[in-house]
């Protein structure tokens, strides 16, 4: 179900069943699984894959190379990065094109939660049921069930809801 006005959804987007998309969303070349929700002012670029039952809150940017598995929560204003060394121009001053950089993939595993305004650098994997604190900058892999926060994000405790974790 697509709701609202001012949507930009290109014909190459693959939407699952019962996907909710709100106003002022820009989608192209991506896929979004069944039951997922995409808030206002979100952009999802080509090659990004969103699983089933994912909630993506407003003002989030999901770039090429990002895979988000099922049952993931993405807070407001979360930013993903896919280039370790971004530049506008080459050494000779010419504008860079897609041929001048390498897309570095990022994976968010099932059941993870990412707090508002977090930044996820490229090349990391956020493990199953991990929690990323609001405003964190994730520069390294996050183990399954871990709770991380800060800049750079560091473990602060285990996720108590993770199966097999005792208090």
Mind sketching the topology for me?
Elements: E1 8-9, E2 14-15, E3 20-21, E4 26-27, E5 31-32, E6 37-38, E7 43-44, E8 49-50, E9 55-56, E10 61-62, E11 66-68, E12 73-74, E13 79-80, E14 106-108, E15 113-114, E16 119-120, E17 125-126, E18 131-132, E19 137-138, E20 146-149, E21 154-158
Parallel strand pairs: 1-4, 2-5, 3-6, 4-7, 5-8, 6-9, 7-10, 8-11, 9-12, 11-14, 12-15, 13-16, 14-17, 15-18, 16-19, 18-20
Antiparallel strand pairs: 20-21
Characterise this structure.
It is a single chain. With about 170 residues, the protein is mostly beta strands. It has one domain (about 1-165): Hexapeptide repeat proteins (UDP N-Acetylglucosamine Acyltransferase, domain 1). The chain has strands at about 10, 15, 20, 25, 30, 35-40, 45, 50, 55, 60, 65-70, 75, 80, 105-110, 115, 120, 125, 130, 135-140, 145-150, 155-160. The strands form 4 sheets. Strands 3-6-9-12-15-18-20-21 form an 8-stranded mixed β-sheet, with no helix packed on it. Strands 2-5-8-11-14-17 form a 6-stranded parallel β-sheet, with no helix packed on it. The chain has a 4-stranded parallel β-sheet with strand order 1-4-7-10, with no helix packed on it. Strand 20 (about 145-150) and strand 21 (about 155-160) form a beta hairpin. The radius of gyration is 16 Å and the shape is globular. The termini are far apart. The model has no long low-confidence stretch (mean pLDDT about 90).
